[in-house]
Amino acid sequence: MNMPLRVGHIDLSFHDASAIEVENVLRRHGHAVERSAAPHEEMFRRLGRGDVDVLVSAWLPSSHGGYLAPMEHDVTRITVLYEPYCIWGVPDYVPEETVSAVSDLLKEPAVSRMQKRIQGINPGAGISRFSQAIVEQYRLGDAGYSFHTGTEAECFDGFERAYAEGRWLVIPLWHPQYLHNRYRIRALEEPRGLLGTTDAATLVIRNEVMGRIQAGALAELECLNLGNQRVSALDDALHQSAGRSQTLAQRT
């Protein structure tokens, strides 16, 4: 009997997009796939318990290294799918000559014009931990700034609304991500290293299921490298498809 491979991904759209690519490889080689999504900490707990066989993907070492450490000896690192890194970004219409670094947020004209609420995603994300550290260590609260965790929609849709209105704001973001496929977002300089390093988005598989994976599938996975630009484009296409489906559902 061909037992399904349980493929898990963190419940963010770009993780979903890259998981689909991995799942397509497995299906081409005859594997049945069960997919699931969960927030960061919960997905790594599932991997540790053996509730998922494949994780797409662990960002190592900065963002998810602490989550993977307790189960490091239970999994095999298969390939690096892309090389993500976190940023604090501003829309390209914010003049670079006046706002080029995080420290510039404490100066004019940023203090007067910048939206003070910095909207992030869920609290388990690396970018959320990094962003809170930036607010604290740069004492941005003294100038009225505050960082808030929330949903993808609150963060990403909020950015798109602000961009359409020409408002100044900071978005805690990363590469790859679908907004980079739509807009020019400039990363602010952060010389203290609070945003972590460039990570390796690593496909990991539990050791106990390695023998169940077809040799051809494993060989193809070992060569799979999507790259940041492609993942951003795949993420954008996934969002556009979801938007079209929602529109059709509303009409019917």
Short description:
The chain is of the alpha/beta class and 252 residues long. The chain has helices at residues 13-28, 40-49, 65-68, 110-113, 126-137, 152-165, 215-222, 228-251, and strands spanning 5-10, 33-38, 54-60, 75-82, 85-91, 117-119, 146-148, 171-175, 185-187, 200-206. It starts with a strand and ends with a helix.
Structure annotation, total helices: 8
Q: Percent of residues in helical segments?
A: 25-40%
Number of domains: 2
CATH architecture of the largest domain: 3-Layer(aba) Sandwich
Biggest sheet statistics: 5 strands, mixed
Strand order of the largest sheet: 2-1-3-10-4
Mean pLDDT: 93
SSE topology string: EHEHEHEEHEHEHEEEHH
Q: What percent strand?
A: 15-25%
Gross morphology is elongated
CATH-defined superfamily of the largest domain: Periplasmic binding protein-like II
Low-confidence stretches: 245-252
Number of strands: 10
- Pairing-aware structural class of the strands and helices? alpha/beta
Tell me the span between the first and last alpha carbons. 40 Å
CATH fold title of the largest domain: D-Maltodextrin-Binding Protein, domain 2
Radius of gyration: 19 Å
